[in-house]
């Protein structure tokens, strides 16, 4: 048997395109060829189970071997095998309607996955690293003869009688000079660990040394000897392929450690398993995040029939759940997936919605089943829930019942519970409810104490996402505003009808303002006199809530860059009813008046951490001189 011919691709440009434009992603050749071997092996197993193949199956596996001297990589399987006619059908004919269409479509392709997936080039990815490829195969069919196919990277091929004596296929790559990195065992091991770690058929790559018991020594202690065993690189039955009823907590934790060996144990997990209207399995873990969420992304791995595809799952997993860890496997997502496919595919959108629902249902279940345990996890899961509440309407609808607000007294409340708690005291004279919060309890302690004295509650909002969460709450909650506790003095945060009367005359008010303006002498600080409770601080420095929030959003990259570049401006609130102000007015010496005013201003700055560097040194010197 001998035959020569031309591969029916209607263009001689196919191989240069593969070699040139797919070079940056060339490692996927091994994924493609090993996956093909796995498919062939699974098919023979299936035929055997149906009684359509009655021969011995033997030990089904795919083997990868490298010969650095011959510069070859061989991928072998003992699956279906092929006849010469099947080679012509499946290898020689690439289903293009024409070269023009191919070249036109190719212009839109962004990466190797997209080209290979769109044009069915899985096998031909071998030419990304090889300048000659051989197929040596023997079909499972009775009476089949072995066949050998060889191609040197042009459109010319040759089919001759093969040498294989057992069922299956060998793909032999003659590695080109530019790709000799793949002749190194550690490089191939790295790729197999990445793409084939959970394939459903054993994948052998050489051997490895292990220790096994070898009797006892003279003292009765166990002895061990080194033995060479097959290096099987994959777990063929990962936990996501099993029923949750057959798994223990230890199984889930062990699998998590296998995926993320240096991470803390997760808080809990969700086992995904659905077969309609799409197929999806997987396990998603909630890791311990605290407030360090920016560095935890891309921890979810996407598989298709246990073949790794990517860890960039943005279109499949909702944005707010990119903080989760784990695996998702769906045969409805093609192996050679592209970003444009993910963005357009209807199954992907359904999967996205399904995952959102499953996570929401799990959180609701945890909250209802054991609220105390849920509250104890809030510091870790709060980021997920708040992020989802902000970014996903469907999730927010469910999350309104289990998103929690925590206050400075370390109490937690649902949204409805908190509204009930603060409505009576924190509703202003116009009937508008005000929630107070702090993002730094230590720096804002004086303001928190002032608010607490009036019976006000103060929420703790100190996670990286809380700036956006606060603004979103104001949109969601009817007739409610949120103010940081240091946005104004306590008497002015929530305007009431019972404001204290001023003890100063109009002339005295003007005199005090002039004294403080001259003592401070900084354009960024605007002095205002207020009639406050005499027990409140004599001087308080605040920043307008709106401006401060816009600056916080700018710092978080929230699209408020204009505000981020504006200079800081503060309001200096002088409590006209405080006894220190009366003392300043009664002081006959203008220099002493100025010193007392500046001292009160500096103490206000110091209490908020706004007095630093040279200003702090100058303050200490002035304090000593004043004494």
UniProtKB/TrEMBL annotation:
Kindly name one Pfam family recorded for this protein.
Answer: HATPase_c_3
KW Endoplasmic reticulum (keyword) present: no
Keywords recorded for this protein, A-Z: ATP-binding, Chaperone, Cytoplasm, Nucleotide-binding, Stress response
Per the record's keyword annotation, is Magnesium included, yes or no?
Answer: no
The major lineage groups are: Bacteria, Pseudomonadati, Bacteroidota, Sphingobacteriia, Sphingobacteriales
Any coiled-coil ranges, and where? none
Q: Which family does it belong to?
A: Belongs to the heat shock protein 90 family.
* NCBIfam families noted in UniProt: PRK05218.1 (NF003555)
Q: Which GO terms describe its molecular function?
A: ATP binding; ATP hydrolysis activity; ATP-dependent protein folding chaperone; unfolded protein binding
Q: Where does ATP bind?
A: 32, 36, 77, 82, 97-98, 169, 339
Put simply, this protein is called Chaperone protein HtpG
């Amino acid at each position: 048997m001998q035959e020569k011919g031309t591969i029916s691709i209607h263009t001689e440009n196919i191989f240069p395109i593969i070699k040139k434009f797919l070079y940056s992603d060339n490692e996927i050749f091994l994924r493609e060829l090993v996956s093909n071997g796995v498919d062939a092996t699974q098919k023979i197993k299936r035929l055997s189970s149906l009684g359509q193949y009655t021969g011995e199956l033997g030990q089904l596996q795919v083997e990868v071997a490298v010969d650095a001297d011959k510069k070859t990589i061989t991928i072998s399987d003992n699956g279906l095998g092929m006849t010469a006619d099947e080679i012509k059908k499946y290898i020689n004919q690439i289903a293009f309607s024409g070269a023009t269409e191919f070249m036109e479509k190719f212009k839109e392709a962004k990466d190797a996955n997209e080209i290979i997936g769109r044009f069915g080039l899985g096998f031909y990815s071998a030419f990304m690293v090889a300048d000659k490829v051989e197929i040596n195969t023997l079909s499972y069919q009775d009476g089949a003869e072995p066949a050998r196919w060889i191609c040197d990277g042009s459109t010319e091929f040759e089919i001759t009688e093969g040498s294989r004596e057992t069922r299956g296929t060998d793909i032999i790559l003659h590695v080109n000079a530019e790709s000799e990195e793949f002749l190194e065992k550690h490089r191939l091991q790295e790729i197999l660990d990445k793409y084939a770690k959970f394939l459903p058929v054993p994948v052998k790559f050489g051997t490895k040394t292990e220790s096994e018991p070898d009797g006892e020594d003279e003292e009765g202690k166990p002895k061990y000897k080194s033995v060479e065993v097959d290096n099987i690189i994959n777990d063929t039955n990962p936990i996501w392929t099993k029923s949750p009823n057959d798994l223990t907590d230890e199984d889930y934790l062990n699998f998590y450690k296998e995926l993320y060996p240096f991470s803390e144990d997760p808080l809990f997990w969700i086992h995904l398993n659905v077969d309609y209207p799409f197929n999806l399995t997987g396990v998603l873990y909630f890791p311990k995040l605290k407030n360090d969420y920016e560095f935890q992304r891309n921890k979810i791995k996407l598989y298709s029939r246990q073949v790794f595809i990517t860890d960039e799952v943005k279109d499949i997993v909702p944005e707010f759940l990119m903080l989760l860890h784990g695996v998702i496997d769906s045969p409805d997502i093609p192996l050679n997936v592209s970003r444009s496919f993910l963005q357009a595919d209807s199954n992907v959108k359904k999967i996205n919605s399904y995952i959102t629902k499953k996570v929401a249902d799990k959180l609701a279940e945890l909250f209802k089943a054991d609220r105390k345990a849920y509250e104890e996890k809030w510091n870790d899961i709060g980021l997920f829930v708040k992020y989802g509440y902000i970014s996903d309407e469907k999730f927010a609808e469910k999350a309104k019942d289990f998103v929690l607000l925590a206050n400075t007294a370390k109490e937690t409340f649902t949204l409805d519970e908190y509204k009930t708690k603060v409505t009576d005291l924190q509703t202003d004279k116009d009937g508008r409810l005000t929630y107070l919060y702090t993002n730094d309890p230590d720096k804002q302690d004086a303001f928190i104490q002032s608010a607490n004295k009036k019976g006000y509650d103060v929420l703790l909002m100190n996670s990286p996402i809380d700036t956006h969460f606060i603004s979103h709450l104001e949109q969601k909650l009817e007739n409610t505003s949120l103010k940081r506790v240091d946005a104004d003095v306590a008497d002015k945060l929530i305007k009431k009808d019972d404001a204290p009367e001023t003890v100063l005359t109009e002339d005295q008010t003007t005199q005090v303002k002039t004294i403080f303006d001259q003592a401070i002498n900084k354009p960024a600080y605007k002095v205002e006199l207020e009639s406050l409770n005499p027990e409140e601080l004599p001087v308080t420095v605040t920043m307008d809530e709106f401006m401060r929030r816009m600056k916080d959003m700018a710092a978080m990259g929230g699209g408020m860059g204009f505000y981020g570049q504006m200079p800081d401006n503060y309001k200096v609130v002088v409590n006209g009813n405080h006894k220190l102000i009366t003392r300043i007015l009664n002081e006959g010496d203008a220099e002493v008046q100025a010193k007392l005013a500046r001292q009160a201003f500096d103490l206000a700055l110091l209490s908020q951490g706004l007095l630093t560097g040279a200003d702090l040194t100058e303050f200490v010197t002035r304090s000593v001189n004043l004494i």
